[in-house]
## 1
Amino acid sequence: MSSSFPRRQLGLVAAAGYLAIRGQQAIAAEEEAPGSSAADLSRAAHHKLAAQYSAARQGISLVVMLDGNRVFEDYPNGGRADRAHELASGTKSFSGVLAAAAIADGLFASWDEKLVATLPEWQGDPRRSQITLRHLLSLTSGIPGGAIARVPAYTDAIASETVAEPGERFAYGPAPFQIFGECLRRKLAAKAKDGEKPEGVLEYLERRVFDPIGLTHGFWRKDKDGNPHLPSGAALAAREWAKFGEFVRLGGMWDGKEIVPQKLLDDCFTGSRVNPAYGLSWWLNRPVDAATLRRVPMLRRAQDLVGEKHDLAPDLVFAAGAGNQRLYISRQLKLVVVRQATGILVNRGMGRVTRPSAPATSSACAGTQTFPRR
């Protein structure tokens, strides 16, 4: 059986999800038994190849879910099923779902609400006064993203000036997510009754999304004022991140109950004119032309599939973080894949997460397990 893979952007990025989604390219040299299907997503052989490739590249977890069942998991290089791991920028994709819940609850009127109504500091500014929630979470507000891994406090983020008209430039970075956090914080504060402590941003996310699906998270980094970092603050165990992916795959439903309206959730998976491969806090499997690649150089660094020939499901969406943390979701294939790895440089008071010194080892577990739900 061949364990060689096409060389992919960033060295590994799509390997775990790609192989689980379409095994046939990875096992092109394998002799298939009569009547077998290389695209059978439940085949453990495909998942084991993905696990080997991931483990050899600092991987510490790989979880594959198919139609709500956990069909494969692997925790090499000291990884553990019960250990929360930093998601880095994989955290960003919670914001789209969080915003969808806030719209459903009437905290925002729509994706196209102008944020100046919540941020009076922006009044009189010809550009910032036109920025909508959609602009902010599609990273097309005209505000620079800011330095990667240097997350500003909410109060500092809202002071950011624009460098382009809203909707005209894609700019990746932490600032827009912190601005969203401040908008939501103020909305929640305005909703609180007199004398009542306002619900915090993280508490709202927990009550509206995490608690209803039985999701628990590890630490969540916060700014100097105690507000959660929305661009890169979360740590989740692989199974918990997969649970969130399954919730998204099910269109905001859990145990037959609507948690977030699917229409609002699905709005997160429409790209912008300036970057069709990025929705509202989610990366998308969408065609990107040469002009867009020149205009948005971040695509070559952050988007797994740019420049690759593949037959992946067109509805594939994913959350992506430094160190090649990935959450892949395809409703068409009824598939959720989580891949986590070491190698994240943490320079915010927590030290460095080092590479494993021992050769990659794997303790793969195949077999169908019904996904636990509350």
Note: Residues 1-16, 18-39, 346-361 have pLDDT under 50 and may be disordered.
## 2
Amino acid sequence: MSKHRLLLTEKAFARVGAKIEQLGEDITLSAFNQAQIQSFNITKLEKPNNILDATVAWLSLDIYQNSNPAMLDEILLNSPGLDWVHTAIAGVEAPIFGKLLERGVRITNSDAQAPSVAEFTLGNILSLFQNHNKIEEYGKKKRWAPIPFREIQNTKWLILGYGSIGKELDKRLRAFGAEVVAVRRNSNSDDPAYVTTVNDLGKLIPQCDVVVLACALSRETRGIVDRNFLEKMKPESILVNIGRGGLILEDDLLSALERGNGIETAILDVFDIEPLPENHPYWSHPKVRVTSHNASFGDGMADRADELFLYNLECYLAGQPLRKEISNE
């Protein structure tokens, strides 16, 4: 009899089920489809049940795209033998993860999105600096004229949050010759010298041409971009939010953009309410670029997410430390 039962979607099983089965007889797979989750009724289940008997659950990307998350929460909370949950997303602020941690369930998340998000951020800044809208306009008009553009080299960037995304962005920016400073909640002896704590945030904001929000949403960071923060921003600077919508006080950002004496443009990929309502002023604001929580949709992300889970599963079965494990603090 297998020591562990892994709960995963049929789509995930189709992708990597054969690789998991090669890990040995210590694990049995319980694959479910999306229709099962949508119609799931815990009160009518007979026990034992393969879904509720899971010791390991893999929340792969297709779950978040196609399932009923609330129903999935009920499954996890009613699985008495659950020992480890791996989520293919980076954010773990949803209440379900806190509840599982309190129960002693191990949680790991994913950094598979980091390269995609870093390239997405850099690509959007390049398109602004290089006047891509004007290039397209000139092309349609068959107008032959040089278009001066701003270089990334010698610009200064502030990254709030120096986790996987911050590090991937840092790596790319330095290749372009940009100067990078970063702040994080707690100092880490492994960080470069230019990474500091939030205590230095106030003095760094006015120095930077681009400010990137790449931190998690917490009690400490909710609304961190407020009027005071925005008034410190350098003239003609750019704010990029690829973290969480709640990091920004929306009314304060709109007011700052209208004043026009500091921040010049906001590139926003995440919002407090998603999808962003059609009547939201961001959509039509000339200084706001809206993207639909799209930063992680690079074509290599899904494969990286699967590879991370397979790596962690092999470590888990061998009793070795897991990558990206969340601390219950």
Note: The mean pLDDT is 93.
## 3
Amino acid sequence: MDKRLLVLALGMFALGTDTFVIAGVLPEIAQGFNVDIGVAGQLTTLYAIAYALLAPTVAAIAANVPRKQLMLSGLAVFVLANLTTALAPTFTIALISRVFAGLGAAMYAPTATGTGATIVAPERRGQAIAIIVAGLTAATALGSPIGTVIGGLNDWRWTMYFVSAVGLAAGLGIMTLLNDVPLPARVSLKARLAPLQDSRVGWTLLTTFLGMAGNFLVYIYFSVVFDRVLANAFLFGALLVVWGTSGTLTNVALSRVLDRVSATKVMWIVLLVQAVDMALLPWSSASLWSAVLAVAVWGATGWGIQGPQQYRLVNVAPPIAPILLGLNTAATYLGVTTAGIVGAFGIHLLGAHRLSFLSVGIFVLAIFTSHMAGRRIERNRDLPTLGDLQPTRS
């Protein structure tokens, strides 16, 4: 195993943990700052929207910055921002720090993925990207549960110290093991956004947005949705392990079938099962064993969205796959942003235990947009114009 890929994956693990772990310590944060839990949930919202909006912007503006320097700078901003969150004396400062954490993530994540693909032989690029992305997946199964237990046993601020320490370790590894990486071809911000004009891309990204919004609407407020069964921090962490592990297993399984089964059909099944799971959640979350089953189904179907969506985009226009996948990531984090805001209102309107009813409505919309995306892709499999998207050296 190439150690350089492992340290790049470790950085993604830190970023992913930061994305998911706030949900695990949300009640403690709300209590510590004396704010409503819906207000505390906006810590995730600001991190997500900063990442979504700044990732393509940073990629275009910093195209001439050496890759190693950009990744180390991103991790430095990320670590300092999380330390600021941990030490924040007021909720306002904590909110501002989350924006800078999102900036650091936006500087690091796309750069790390691209770097991994360039430092290995061409025939190993797929494997390299898979290893780096696995760091993000591992955050759902390991990073978030570990951070939740740390916060539950001590103080939520120690959770942020944990995230900072992982980010620092990744930075030291990159500094030690990674040599200078050749600059990739430059793609302007206008060119990065140009695929949005294609209806197939637009419908597909809208499906990603809705799917992630429906998922994270409940996940961000996990602690209050499942408060009837969360007896202690270890049990909370165990449920998060179930959520992340089932999602990881689903992605492994889908990687074996997407070349043989229509991505549109897979999306229809995944979204339908998820809608049913969310419809039953007000009752299934009331007892431990039914909650475990509900969380397992939720994790499997929730993370089962990304594989088919990425498969669709890559096959729409393989020459610009990195750009399309970048837009898909932005749609994911915009969905997380929306989830945090809608969820905060939903708790007051419906109550935490019925919050998943909003997810059901969102998943029904996602089934429609997914169907539209599939129809458009079947009608025309070649992106009409690629001229504006051709990368240039500068």
Note: The mean pLDDT is 88.
## 4
Amino acid sequence: MRLALRTRRRLLLTVALMFLTGLVAAGMAIYVERFSDSRAAQVTDTRACAGCDLAEIRLWWADLRGADLSGANLAGGRLWWADLTEANLAGADLHGASLWWSTLDRIDLTGTNLTGARMGRAAIADGKLRGAVLKNADLIGAVLDRADLRAADLTWADLRQSISRQADFRGARLEEANFYLADLTGANFSGADLTRASLVQGNFSRAVLTGANLREANLNKADFQMAILRGAQLMEAQLTSANLTEADLRGADLSRANIWKANLSGADLTDAKFTGATMNEVILDGARLCRTLLPEGQDDSGCSKPAR
């Protein structure tokens, strides 16, 4: 009995040692792979390599604060947990690059190619991404507070659970982007294209979506309290249980939209169109209805109420 117990203990100790040896070997492999590349040493030492060919480079945990890598080729590079605070990567090529958990606050990514980049959990607050290409990019859980994403291309981008409070998405392409459970409080989407985008359970309170295209978008259970959707196109959109209390929907087109159980209390629906929309159990308490085209006809009952 004692012999069997000792044998089991030795076996467990052997397995534990093998596991620890494997971890050490993996860590050494990463270390050797990173520092055997002379390009990595040059970049980390000088923090200046504008226009350099750094494709497939490994820069794990690299300190690149304030580095100038503008116009550099970093396609397929691995920069996990790297610190690129206030770095300049304007016009760089980062398609397919991995930047998971990296710190990119106040970074300049103007016009940068980030197609298919993996940036989950990255910190990109106050980042400059105007005109950047982020098609099919992974931004799950990323923080983009106050980031400038004007005219950026985020088609098919995955922004689930991301935080982009007061971010600027004006004129951005966001077709079929995924904003599930994302926080976009106070963000500006004026003129943005969100065709077939998923905004399910997202927080868009006080956001500005003037003239935004939300055709066939999914806004189920999304929060648009006090949001500005003036002139927005929401044809055939899904708004089941959406919160639009005190929202500004003047001139918005919600034709053929599904607005089942949505809350439009106190919303301004002046000149809004609901032609062919499904409006079962919709709450309209205190809403302003003036030249509003409802499924059953035009409603002018609130024209006497003062406009905002």
Note: The chain has two helices and two strands.
